[in-house]
Automatic annotation (TrEMBL):
BP GO annotations: positive regulation of transcription by RNA polymerase II
Biased composition (Polar residues): 15-24
Main location: nucleus
Species name: Aspergillus versicolor CBS 583.65
PROSITE patterns xrefs: ZN2_CY6_FUNGAL_1, ZN2_CY6_FUNGAL_2
Region described as Disordered: 1-32
TM annotation in the entry: none
Name the UniProt record assigns to this protein: Zn(2)-C6 fungal-type domain-containing protein
Record's subcellular location: Nucleus
Pfam families documented for this protein: Fungal_trans_2 (PF11951), Zn_clus (PF00172)
Length: 475
């Protein structure tokens, strides 16, 4: 395609050296502020050649590109011979096509609400214009989703992910030099979350759970909380972060465990988040920090084998006393159940899942007694009943992943119908999200069933995961 397709690359014809420049011509000159980040960092002129500028080619560096487009740029994706093969070969309409795909499709896997209520859909546009790292991160994940996360086509996806990583590092360095960096904390935090959460989605053959991004997000969190950018995106980011912490808590060995959700500044946001329908955590945002603590305790028992009965009782009490948030911060489970039945069912199922995980943790060191077995069965039935009431024709399906693994692994030989339900729901979830991590989760659950029923080996899903060296993220 000719370079005239990109009007920002067409320069006004300069007068010859012998022709004087009139004052009117001089006043019309506008200093260009576009160019790649590497050239800006060195304060040198960027020729904006695509896909890599000449200076980055000569320095053998990753060129993060230039995203400034003219308003009248035309998008004709049907002109591409093979859009998937050339997904990143040009910097024009295909990138915009990826953004459109993100707004309408891919962003749905990052929440439980439709696009009209999802802060990562069209409303994220101003932040994409502000941050190249965020744009690269969104384009990389959008491309991966569009290609069904196929391992055979990862090269182009990983190239864009690498650009996001380079851009993120440069933006962090730049932010440290600013007198008022608050406005950048949101995009840095969101980019870290996207890159971290999706780490295990991209390459099933690696144990990458996005740990470095999680640790980085923990460092940015206090800065975000102290900033004055209290927007809908901030609320989304905090809920997504809490959710991520909850379902990576069991993946971190004891020496790496931390409790950033106990930050008093973050706790201030819980009532505010609970009084809203959060796009990720629904109406149960304040429940997820408790689940994170349960996950950490569960992992410590698997790794170290030292029980703490007092802490178990403390966690159980917090789960039992958790109530649906109501007006003015008062609990009103019946009212919330009436106003938002699906979200109430999801919250109820996760509370049951937390209690199940506590009993699973206890069973690591000793067999459960009769009373505990009865309680476990009650929680399993409560959670499975809630799962049956979660609709499968909406983004609410995204909420089921952790439940199907945690609760489903406890089903016995007689639970034929519930086992079939677990398998069907996971298959639906894979079709909806295109994420193979849930298929691997089902394989883990089936292996627990087999060991218990065929070999009479009592083992929990987390014990089996650790024993086999598998890091299964459920986010």
């Amino acid at each position: 395609m000719s370079s005239s397709y990109y009007p920002d690359e067409v320069h006004t014809r300069r007068p010859s050296s012998g022709t004087p420049i009139s004052p009117d011509q001089r006043s019309r000159r506008v200093k260009r502020r576009t160019g790649c980040e590497q050239c800006k960092k060195r304060r040198v002129k960027c020729d904006e050649h695509k896909p890599r500028c000449s200076r980055c080619v000569s320095r053998n560096e990753t060129c993060t590109g230039n995203f400034q487009y003219d308003k009248w740029q035309v998008e004709r994706p049907w002109l591409a011979k093979d859009p998937q093969r050339d997904l990143f070969s040009r910097a024009g309409f295909l990138e915009n096509e990826l953004l459109q795909y993100w707004f309408e499709h891919c962003s749905l896997i990052m929440g439980v609400v439709p696009p009209s209520q999802n802060p990562l859909s069209y409303s994220i546009s101003p932040y994409i214009k502000r941050s190249k790292a965020l744009r690269h991160a969104i384009q990389y994940l959008s491309c991966a989703h569009r290609l069904d996360f196929a391992q055979a086509q990862l090269a182009q996806v990983l190239e864009e992910r690498h650009k996001a990583l380079v851009s993120l590092q440069l933006e962090i360095e730049h932010t440290q030099l600013l007198s008022n960096p608050d406005i950048h904390f949101q995009t840095i935090f969101l980019c870290s979350l996207i890159l971290g959460i999706s780490s295990s989605w991209i390459d099933a053959g690696t144990p990458d759970i996005g740990l470095q991004h999680l640790l980085g997000a923990r460092q940015v969190l206090p800065l975000l909380l102290r900033s004055e950018t209290n927007t809908d995106l901030t609320h989304y980011l905090l809920g997504l972060y809490i959710y991520w912490e909850a379902f990576t808590s069991y993946l971190l060995p004891a020496p790496l465990q931390s409790s950033p959700w106990l930050n008093p500044q973050l706790a201030v946001f819980y009532p505010m988040l609970d009084n809203l329908t959060h796009p990720v955590t629904g109406i149960a945002t304040s429940l997820y920090p408790v689940l994170a603590e349960v996950g950490q305790y569960y992992r410590r028992l698997v790794d170290v084998g030292e029980a703490d009965p007092a802490h178990e009782n403390y966690l159980e009490t917090r789960l039992q006393k958790w109530k649906f948030p109501g007006p003015d911060g008062e609990a009103d489970e019946e009212e919330e159940n009436k106003n938002a039945p699906p979200l109430a069912e999801i919250a109820r199922a996760y509370r049951s899942a937390g209690l199940i995980m506590l009993l699973q943790a206890k069973s690591v060191l000793r067999p459960l007694d009769g009373v505990e077995e009865v309680r476990l069965r009650i929680h399993i039935l409560e959670a499975m009943h809630a799962i049956t009431r979660i609709p499968t024709n909406s983004p609410l399906l995204n909420s089921e992943g952790p439940l199907l693994i945690i609760v489903g692994s406890e089903l016995g030989a007689a639970d034929v119908e519930y086992k079939t339900l677990v398998e069907c729901r996971i298959q639906e979830l894979v079709r909806y999200t295109r994420l193979g991590v849930y298929t691997r989760g089902l394989e883990l659950v089936k292996e627990v069933w087999r060991l218990r029923e065929e070999e009479n080996i009592e083992i929990t899903w987390l014990e089996l995961m650790v024993r086999e060296g598998v890091d299964l993220t459920l986010t």
